[in-house]
UniProtKB/TrEMBL annotation:
It comes from the Bacteria. Keywords: ATP-binding, Magnesium, Metal-binding, Nucleotide-binding. GO terms for molecular function: ATP binding; ATP hydrolysis activity; GTP binding; metal ion binding. Residues 247-330 form the TGS domain. Residues 3-247 form the OBG-type G domain. It comes from Candidatus Liptonbacteria bacterium RIFCSPLOWO2_01_FULL_56_20. Its cofactor is Mg(2+). One of its GO terms (cellular component) is cytoplasm. This is Redox-regulated ATPase YchF. SUPFAM superfamilies: P-loop containing nucleoside triphosphate hydrolases (SSF52540), TGS-like (SSF81271).
């Protein structure tokens, strides 16, 4: 499963610095707008002690953690929805991401130019979300014209699409994000920007962050993290949060060849989880042998856990849990 997170924000707020820290790559992080023109892409491992400890137990030749793909995207300015700055490129790249990390500058450094001249993270947050909403409104209006024509045929799916689009349009016109419609088929199909989950990174120190800013972020139903990117060394928490906002979990496989974390959506049943390993495993699924990773470690290995009766046999209706270690039996 490919997981992609877009790093977005106004110019000169720390996006490329964050990307460099995450990926240990060196991309241009210059002190002027639009230093990043094409999205830089980096694949980042999700920190997971379970992979390390199980690999040690199994004496695995390889360790393969879950990963998140981060896109460092060109800075956004007012009018991006209609092509100002690098708006069209910026917005097209966000469509490809599954979620967004919004970087807001809360630090005050006269040596680093701000595109709006003053530091105001609430204003910047409003600019970003307004631009996303206006672009979505443009997209929805075009699709709604088509949906209304299709609905006149009496097709039930077309009628539902029309109703969803009208509701979404009303929310966007109020300036609201539409996270709650993210699972609607028509919304997924259009890859609407404001339907994507958001995580806010407040670039600065705790002392720079106002209670009002925190309250506004929470009002959006988003999570946030305060990090001074000029001094930070460990971004493990951000990577884990980025993984979690998509409501994803990992199950594991372990053996002499490799120990690996496999990414699935929370609530996935055993056959679909097996299909992440190989499509044939889902098609020919019989059952799964399952044990929690901690119990497996405490036992000292698969054979020992089986002798202690800790290995469970689970069928097609079993919902896989975070930290399950599985062996899939298939036809």
């Amino acid at each position: 499963m490919k997981l992609s997170i877009g790093i977005v924000g106004l110019p000169n707020v720390g996006k490329s610095t964050l990307f460099n820290l995450l990926t240990k790559q060196s991309v241009l992080a210059a002190n002027y707008p639009f230093a990043t023109i094409d999205p830089n892409v980096g694949v980042v491992a999700v920190p997971d002690e379970r992979v390390d400890t199980l690999a040690e137990m199994s004496k695995s030749k390889k360790k393969i953690p879950a990963v998140v793909e981060f896109y460092d995207i060109a800075g956004l300015v007012k009018g991006a929805y209609k092509g100002e700055g690098l708006g069209n490129q910026f917005l097209a790249h966000i469509r490809e991401a599954q979620a967004i990390v919004v970087v807001l500058r809360v630090f005050n450094d006269p040596g680093v130019v701000h595109v709006e001249s003053t530091i105001d993270p609430l204003r910047d947050m409003g600019t970003i979300n307004t631009e996303l909403a206006l672009k979505d409104l443009e997209t929805v209006n075009k699709r709604l014209d088509k949906a209304e024509g299709e609905a006149r045929t009496g097709d039930k799916k077309a009628i539902k699409n029309m109703e969803v689009l009208k509701t979404v349009k009303a929310e966007l016109e109020k300036g609201n994000l539409i996270h709650q419609f993210g699972e609607e088929e028509i919304v997924r199909e259009m890859q609407l920007l404001t339907s994507k989950k958001q995580l806010y990174l407040l670039n600065g120190d705790e002392a720079d962050v106002s209670a009002r800013l925190e309250a506004e972020i929470k009002k959006l139903g988003a999570d946030y993290l305060v990090a001074n990117l000029a001094a930070i060394k460990d971004l493990g928490e951000l990577i884990k949060k980025a993984y979690a906002i998509l409501d994803l979990i990992s199950f594991l496989t372990t053996g002499e060849d490799e120990t690996r974390a496999w990414t699935i959506k929370r609530g996935t049943r055993a056959p679909e989880a097996a299909g992440v390993i190989h499509t044939d495993f889902e098609k020919n699924f019989i059952r799964a042998e399952v044990v929690n990773w901690k119990k497996l470690l405490e036992s000292g290995g698969w054979s020992q856990a089986k002798q202690k009766g800790l290995i469970r046999l689970e069928g097609k209706e079993y919902v896989v849990q975070d930290g399950d270690v599985m062996v899939v039996r298939h036809g």
